Amino acid sequence: MKGQNKLFIAIIVALILGVILGGIVHTSYPESNAEFAKNIKLLGTVFIRLIQMIIAPLVFSTLVVGIAKMGDIKMVGRVGTKAMLWFISASLVSLSIGLVLVNWLEPGHVTQLPIQDVSSASDIVKNSKGFSAEDFVTHIIPKSLFEAFATNEVLQIVVFSVMFGIALSAMGEDYVKPVIKGLDIIAHAILKMVGYIMWVAPLGVFGAISAVVATNGFEIFKVYAIYLRDFFFALGILWLVLLLVGYMILGNRLFELLRRIKEPLLIAFSTTSSEAVFPKLVEELERFGCNSRIVSFILPLGYSFNLDGSMMYMTFASIFIAQIYGIDMPLGQQIIMLLVLMLTSKGIAGVPRASLVIIVAACGMFDIPVEGIALILPIDHFCDMGRSMTNVLGNALATSAVSKWEGQLES
């Protein structure tokens, strides 16, 4: 625990120093902003790539071992059903909170945002045009396991791992024991690597924050103050709902869980990557007392289907863009949009800026100018901080809750 506290303090210090350094560069050396941001950002890139390097083998090994060790296919089905019920319920609640609060707070009606150059949204608009049912299916089902590994397609790896784990569990324990033992050793070795990599996190946080502040300065907070204020207020309501449900299920142990995952939450917030904390989250949930088999099964699924922060942002941002352009959407149309977002958002894990791609697709479907995405691009990084942090909390609560329901949560 002492080591964990040292790392937590180091990350906080790096966050503060990053803001200070970025501010100094932005104000004192404006001609060097772009070059400085490009170079300092490499620190964050190193940390993210180190984490990405181990995600695919970790998801594969832990998920296969988790399912194969269950042995009972009925247990796999039971745990999977409980997990999916949680994921669907949490997604609907998150989308609904975003929808209700953006209509109540109306940030698009009271905020005068500067019109951005539409070309800044061109890449996202281009990427969203091809998002069809065919792409949805091909994104879920891998053509090759090695291709999925190479591109870090978590959902495709999950699909293969679930099928492989079920096949192993049906072949008899004695026959597949060497395979399971080998994968179990690989999983533990990778988790050992996590301990080493996490000490690079303060440098990653320092680099990522410095680059953003150096490029945009503190003015960006002023320009978008109302939008950020309303979004983080909505995020706070979502946290309150999630924590209340967590307390109803876990009782006072919820506070122990929050202490355990404080580092993953902070790193996800600082680096805008919930993926970056996946290995550490596995480790901390097992230390919290969650059954390792359930953690290995549910957490990878959660990273594909249970993105609570991203869900809430989708309805919030979509209606915000409509408000900016003065488009009045009837309640019925907004509810249809909610259901469309619910369906189209599943299976987009691993897609760069996935939330924005889905928002653009939804805007195009409901005749909202897709160019409006350019209005929120400058502050998407800061919104992504809150989204990523919330995604981590939601998945930690889902895994702990299902462990408790299965009677597999140790003291």
Automatic annotation (TrEMBL):
Bilayer disposition of the protein: Multi-pass membrane protein
Name assigned to this protein: Cation:dicarboxylase symporter family transporter
Family matches, as PANTHER family: PROTON/GLUTAMATE-ASPARTATE SYMPORTER (PTHR42865), PROTON_GLUTAMATE-ASPARTATE SYMPORTER (PTHR42865:SF7)
InterPro entries given in the database record: Na-dicarboxylate_symporter (IPR001991), Na:dicarbo_symporter_sf (IPR036458)
Superkingdom of the organism of origin: Bacteria
Assigned keywords, A-Z: Cell membrane, Membrane, Transmembrane, Transmembrane helix, Transport
TM region(s), chain numbering: 7-26, 46-71, 83-105, 154-172, 193-214, 226-250, 331-349, 356-379
Keyword Cell division assigned: no
Keyword Transport recorded: yes
Localisation: Cell membrane
Main subcellular location of this protein, as a coarse class: membrane
Source organism per UniProt: Epilithonimonas ginsengisoli
Record SUPFAM superfamilies: Proton glutamate symport protein
